[in-house]
Structures are given as structure tokens and as C-alpha cells.
Write a structure and sequence with these properties.
It is a single chain. By secondary structure, the chain is mainly α. It has a domain of 38 residues. It contains three helices and two strands, in the order αααββ. Strands 1-2 form a two-stranded antiparallel sheet. Helix 1 packs across helix 2. The longest helix is centred in the N-terminal third of the chain and has 22 residues. It is flat, with a radius of gyration of 27 Å. The chain starts with a helix and ends in a 7-residue tail after the last strand.
């Protein structure tokens, strides 16, 4: 049985502020979720191979081969600011 204290505890872990109305509303939702998870736990999955994804997938990668890059002047042409051949960006640490 899910209580308001359980919902408040989970909300605190998630750093979510819930008022009394929200706590009242989430109790039945959390009970439904846990009932569904309990149903899933009753399934026999002993003979099912674990998979990282429900659909068969494979990585499609291109051959990594060295190639000439664009000239520095062309790359810096789209920059809002540059100096001495480098991009100028605003400082993020004082």
C-alpha cells in the first residue's frame, strides 16, 4: 500500500516540491504503477535472452580515414569573433 509519505519521499529524491493536493493525486497513480510492475515480475523470463534493445539493431559506421580539413580562414569566417587564428568565446569561469 502506497502512502502519502512514500510519494513525498520519492518526490524529495527527485527534488520535486509537491503540495498536499499533488500528494493526494499521486498516491493512486503510484499504486497503479507498482501493481503493473508486480504483474511484470510474475512473468517467467528464465528462457529469454537479455537484449539491450527490443528491436534488432546494428551500428552503421563509415570508414574513418584521414582527409584534408577546410582551411583555417574558411572555418573562422563563420565565427562571430576570432583572434590570432582561434575562435573567441565568452569566458565561462571568472
Amino acid at each position: 500500500m502506497v502512502t502519502q509519505e512514500d510519494v513525498a519521499y520519492v518526490a524529495r529524491l527527485c527534488r520535486i516540491d509537491l503540495d498536499q493536493h499533488d500528494l493526494d493525486a499521486f498516491v493512486p497513480h503510484m499504486q497503479e504503477i507498482l501493481a503493473y510492475v508486480d504483474k511484470l515480475n510474475q512473468l517467467d523470463t528464465a528462457h529469454i535472452e537479455p537484449t539491450p534493445h527490443v528491436l534488432p539493431m546494428s551500428n552503421v559506421t563509415a570508414e574513418d580515414s584521414p582527409a584534408a580539413s577546410i582551411p583555417r580562414a574558411d572555418a573562422l569566417q563563420s565565427a562571430p569573433e576570432s583572434a590570432d587564428g582561434f575562435f573567441l568565446v565568452p569566458p565561462i569561469i571568472d
